[in-house]
């Protein structure tokens, strides 16, 4: 009696397909490891990163008074660039500007602006920066939820949604629109858009934040393709947790870097990676998210966010009692 095979003549084809899939998975892993080695270990010593000083005299940074934005402003100043600081609080802007001028001996310019506003704020910004040779733009300003929440239960939902869209999406688009013509005239420029790992895949209970960060990532990747041949570098930065006020994480660790450590690592990838998670530990996490099944990523994300939500609601109840 002949031996029964479930797929008969298809077995060789399935074996070939399995080999191709396995080869592709190994290829992606090896490529990721080599890219990580180049970006995080060789770029600095070998001088492979883009030299920001060659792109212009000024760097503009939005959301520049705290966290990742402030770290970008400081480290770009350390490389010799004059800094345009854009944020809402004039007092904080003046303090950061004074720190940078004192420590790095560069010029600063402050523009106090609320990015939840509309078209009028960009008219103001365009006038303020006219004539300046802006070689680097860092679009960092943004907001997230106070804590993970179901869409229909977001506090003051209508206002919050509009503010988030203006801060996270409109600011990136409009600021790029302001500085890009000058970069094209000089045939060089760098635009760094700070997205988020939450934008790599849908992030339930941070739904709108996740969607806005996906917008930032897609916008940046498309612009990089449009303008790479014109001397402009667009880079999408997708961090996981960093110890900032937004993340509400105070202590840093191997997987949760300080803003300074994160930005130092991310800047080393300029000119090497168009899309980066910024540092080695985050890149490893990003690789896991990329290769893991979407259903598993969603399950882990929902579980984590529900736990954070539960703790946050408990703290709010305790405050009401006290």
Account of the protein in words:
The protein is 54% helix and 11% strand. The protein is of the alpha/beta class and 322 residues long. The chain has one domain (52-287, 297-321): NAD(P)-binding Rossmann-like Domain (Rossmann fold), CATH 3.40.50.720. A 7-stranded parallel sheet has the order 3-2-1-4-5-6-7, with helices on both faces. α1 (11-46) runs antiparallel to α8 (280-291). The longest helix is centred in the first third of the chain and has 36 residues, at 11-46. It is globular.
Features:
single chain, 322 residues, alpha/beta, Rossmann fold, 7 strands, globular, Sc_DH/Rdtase_CS, transmembrane, membrane, NAD(P)-bd_dom_sf, SDR_fam
What topology emerges from the helices and strands here?
Layout: H1 11-46, E1 58-62, H2 67-78, E2 82-87, H3 90-104, E3 108-112, H4 119-129, E4 134-139, H5 157-186, E5 189-194, H6 207-227, E6 232-237, H7 259-267, E7 275-276, H8 280-291, H9 294-321
Parallel strand pairs: 1-2, 1-4, 2-3, 4-5, 5-6, 6-7
Task: Provide a brief overview of the structure.
This protein is α/β, with parallel strands linked by helices. It has helices at residues 11-46, 67-78, 90-104, 119-129, 157-186, 207-227, 259-267, 280-291, 294-321, and strands at 58-62, 82-87, 108-112, 134-139, 189-194, 232-237, 275-276.
Rounded to the nearest angstrom, the distance between the terminal CA atoms is 81 Å
Strand content: 5-15%
CATH superfamily: NAD(P)-binding Rossmann-like Domain
Overall structural class, as computed from helix and strand content, comes to alpha/beta
Give the CATH topology.
Answer: Rossmann fold
Let me know the average pLDDT: 91
Q: Write down the CATH class.
A: Alpha Beta
The major β-sheet equals: 7 strands, parallel
Shape: globular
> What is the β-strand count?
7
For the largest beta sheet, what order do the strands appear in spatially?
3-2-1-4-5-6-7
Low-confidence stretches: none
CATH architecture assignment? 3-Layer(aba) Sandwich
Tell me the radius of gyration.
22 Å
- Tell me the count of domains: 1
- Count of individual helical segments: 9
The run of helices and strands is HEHEHEHEHEHEHEHH
Helix share, percent: 40-55%
Subcellular location: Endoplasmic reticulum
GO molecular function, one term: oxidoreductase activity
Pfam family, one: adh_short
InterPro entries: NAD(P)-bd_dom_sf, Sc_DH/Rdtase_CS, SDR_fam, VLCFA-Steroid_DH
């Amino acid at each position: 009696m002949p031996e029964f095979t479930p797929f008969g003549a298809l077995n060789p084809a399935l074996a070939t397909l399995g080999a191709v899939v396995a080869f592709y998975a190994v290829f992606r892993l090896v490529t990721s490891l080599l890219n990580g080695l180049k970006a995080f270990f060789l770029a600095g010593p070998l001088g492979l990163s883009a030299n920001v000083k060659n792109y212009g005299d000024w760097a503009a940074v939005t959301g520049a008074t705290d966290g990742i934005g402030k770290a970008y402003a400081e480290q770009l100043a350390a490389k010799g660039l004059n800094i345009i600081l854009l944020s809402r609080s004039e007092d904080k802007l003046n303090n950061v500007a004074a720190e940078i001028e004192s420590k790095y001996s560069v010029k600063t310019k402050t523009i106090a602006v609320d990015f939840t506003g509309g078209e009028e704020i960009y008219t103001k910004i365009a006038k303020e920066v006219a004539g300046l040779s802006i070689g680097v733009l860092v679009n960092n300003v943004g907001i997230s939820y106070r804590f993970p929440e179901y869409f229909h239960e977001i506090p003051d939902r209508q206002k919050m949604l509009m503010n988030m869209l203006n801060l996270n999406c409109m600011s990136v688009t409009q600021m790029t629109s302001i500085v890009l013509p000058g970069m094209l005239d000089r045939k060089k420029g760098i635009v760094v858009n700070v997205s988020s790992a939450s934008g790599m895949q849908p992030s339930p209970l941070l739904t709108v934040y996740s969607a806005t960060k996906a917008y930032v990532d897609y916008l940046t990747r498309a612009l990089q393709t449009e303008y790479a041949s014109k001397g402009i570098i667009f880079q999408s930065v997708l961090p996981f947790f960093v110890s900032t006020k937004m993340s509400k994480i105070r202590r840093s660790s191997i997987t949760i870097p300080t803003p300074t450590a994160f930005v130092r690592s991310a800047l080393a990838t300029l000119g090497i990676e168009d899309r980066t998670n910024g540092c080695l530990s985050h890149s490893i996490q990003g690789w896991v998210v990329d290769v893991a099944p979407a259903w598993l990523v969603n399950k882990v994300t929902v579980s984590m966010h529900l736990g954070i939500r539960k703790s946050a609601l408990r703290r709010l109840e305790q405050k009401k009692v006290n």
